[in-house]
UniProtKB/TrEMBL annotation:
Location relative to the cell: Membrane
Entry keyword 4Fe-4S: no
Any one GO molecular function term: secondary active monocarboxylate transmembrane transporter activity
Keywords: Membrane, Transmembrane, Transmembrane helix
The keyword Membrane is annotated on this UniProt entry: yes
CDD domains associated with the record: MFS_SV2_like (cd17316)
Organism, scientific name: Collybiopsis luxurians FD-317 M1
Record-given protein name: Major facilitator superfamily (MFS) profile domain-containing protein
Membrane topology annotation: Multi-pass membrane protein
Biased composition (Basic and acidic residues): 507-519
Length: 525
């Protein structure tokens, strides 16, 4: 077994890094494929993007408010970053719960409820009066936040043509960067102008999450999920039996167990990959505003502007890497962009000028988040296909849990590693020098080590470039969790049959009056 595993890893690194591009009969050029998308596909994609954007606003509200929160609760920076750690630790719980619900019952209602729960918790965080209350709400927020990414990715990508998924993956993932920019703009222009200070940022985030929930509720269920559901009903009719909702849930649990027994090594690999990527992301972002203010001596407004500039690099890098992955492969694109980010570490931490630090922030996020742009489609393609919401979300959030201490590692390292900076002569600093935490050096060492680890993990990993997972059966069907359980072309339902057989399906397994009538007709016949 060990020899076969090592052989497969070596093959991944030496023969499969650049996947073979197989020409399919119905394959279209990218621009033509984009032009063929209908309004529903565009709406589903941008709704998933918006959900992920709102998630980023909600999470990054704490990072932007570390200094204000420390003052409010009379706590150290390390104490405040504990809220970030708890949020990251508990996200895997939400990913498991909501991912399973989504793969079992559909994409629409789970994502809608998830967003509303986040809105309530974010609203409540804006009213807390004590540090303990803040930690409790952010812990609960972590559970709710954990479900968003897997649900948003499946909502956005599974209904798109294969040719567009690389670019779409990059744009989707950088919804996080867009969310960070929106949060920074609110923090820059709204927070200083009213008496509620940091609380206004949390309230705005709650309102945006509520808006996204309403938009998702107004859109129909995923067509791919409905098609798999309709195919399962067709097979039931062919077998002459009707399987109820409870029995389907039991089947789903059995198929999940079978998937875990068969793909346990893939699960471990996914966690290792996402641990590296999450350390890259959080290690380069979460304490960056504090680094700019405490070590470099800039104002919170300057830190917010630099954050915006950095996240602009994220958006450009994510789109570029997602597009390139469609041609040179997912893993090779990820490796190239990680290397680019690592090259710009000195420019990110060494300058003392606003322009130099801003340029460094742009390019390191171009590399780090550029590599991240491939992650949604890479995880979707390598996932056990019937578990496209559960597997990506869970390995993503367990990786988040592993990396949850990144902000605290950097904060603690900065407290122990000091540097001296020049400041204006004053009563507090008569020598014109001040000893401050050396967050820059700590961040540089952490990101450099993590970049090397992530590249190694990526090189030896699997890749299913261009895999058509939308043709797979659902896991609530007996045998649907198997890797080869695809819908046969002669049995698959087209859009008209979906509408005719299923009416306007929502989430769940409720039987409509039309379906009951159809079953009665079949039984009478």
């Amino acid at each position: 077994m060990i020899s076969s595993v090592l052989s497969r890893l070596w093959s991944n690194a030496t023969h499969n890094l650049i996947p073979r591009r197989e020409k399919k009969d119905n394959q279209k050029p990218l621009l033509k494929s984009l032009a063929s998308l209908n309004a529903r596909q565009w709406a589903e994609f941008w709704t998933g993007w918006l959900a992920w954007t709102c998630d980023a606003i909600d999470f990054y509200s704490v990072s932007l408010s570390v200094t204000n929160l420390a003052t409010q609760f009379r706590r150290s920076t390390t104490d405040i970053t504990r809220a970030l750690t708890l949020t990251l630790l508990l996200r895997s719980v939400g990913a498991i719960i909501l991912g399973i619900i989504s793969d079992r019952f559909g994409r629409k209602i789970p994502l809608t409820l998830n967003l509303l729960l986040i809105a309530v918790l974010e609203l409540g965080a804006g009213f807390v009066q004590t540090y303990s209350q803040f930690l409790v709400l952010r812990s609960l927020f972590g559970i709710a936040m954990g479900g968003i990414w897997g649900l948003a990715a499946s909502t956005s990508l599974e209904n798109l043509p294969v040719e567009t998924r690389g670019l779409a993956s990059g744009v989707l993932q950088e919804g996080y960067a867009a969310g960070t920019i929106i949060a920074a703009i609110i923090d820059l222009f709204l927070v200083p102008e009213q008496s509620h200070s940091w609380r206004a940022l949390f309230w705005c985030a709650a309102g945006l999450s509520t808006l996204c929930a309403l938009i998702r509720f107004c859109l129909p269920e995923s067509k791919v999920f409905l098609k798999a559901k309709g195919y399962a009903r067709l097979r039931e009719e062919q077998l002459g039996r009707k399987i109820g909702s409870k029995e389907k849930t039991k089947i789903f649990i059995r198929e999940t167990g079978k998937m875990l027994r068969h793909h346990w090594m893939l699960c471990i690999y996914g966690v290792l990959l996402m641990s590296g990527f999450n350390f890259l992301s959080h290690g380069s972002q979460d304490l960056f505003p504090t680094f700019i203010q405490s070590t470099k001596g800039f104002s919170s407004q300057d830190a917010a502007i630099m954050t915006i500039i950095g996240q602009c690099g994220s958006i450009v890098g994510g789109a570029a890497s997602g597009w390139s992955s469609q041609y040179i492969g997912r893993r090779l694109s990820m490796i190239i962009f990680i290397l680019l980010g690592a090259l710009f570490i000195p420019l990110w931490i060494l300058p003392n000028s606003f322009s130099g630090l801003s340029l460094g922030a742009f390019w390191i996020q171009f590399g780090v988040q550029g590599a991240w742009g491939v992650i949604p489609i890479q995880l979707a393609e390598m996932s056990p296909p019937a578990f496209r919401a559960t597997f990506p979300g869970v390995v993503y959030q367990i990786g988040n849990m592993v990396s949850s201490a990144s902000a605290q590692i950097e904060a603690t390292g900065g407290e122990h590693l000091k540097t001296t900076v020049s400041v204006p002569v004053s009563t507090a600093n008569p020598t014109g020098e001040k000893i401050v935490p050396d967050y820059g050096t700590v961040q540089g060492i952490l990101i450099g080590c993590v970049a090397a680890f992530t590249i190694i993990i990526t090189v030896f990993g699997p890749e299913k470039h261009g895999y058509e997972f939308e043709k797979h059966r659902a896991a609530f069907e007996e045998g649907g969790g198997d890797d080869d359980a695809v819908m046969k072309d002669d049995d698959a339902l087209d859009d008209g049959e979906i509408t005719g057989r299923q009416g306007n399906f929502r989430s769940g397994d409720e039987t409509t009056s039309e379906e009951k009538a159809e079953v009665e007709m079949i039984e009478n016949a």
